[in-house]
Amino acid sequence: MSEIILEVKDIHCEYDNVPVLHGVSLRVCKGEIVAMVGSNGAGKTTTLRTIAGLLHPVSGSIRFMGKDITRTEAYALVRNGISYIPEGRRLFGKLTVRQNLELGAYTTKERSVIQKRLHEVFRLFPILDERQNQTAETLSGGEQQMCAIARGLMSDPALLLLDEISLGLAPSLVEAVFDTIIKIRDQGITILLVEQLVQESLEIADRGYVIQTGRIVHDGPSHELLEMPEIRAAYMGM
Question: Homologous superfamily of 1-81+158-238 in CATH?
Answer without folding.
Answer: P-loop containing nucleotide triphosphate hydrolases (3.40.50.300)
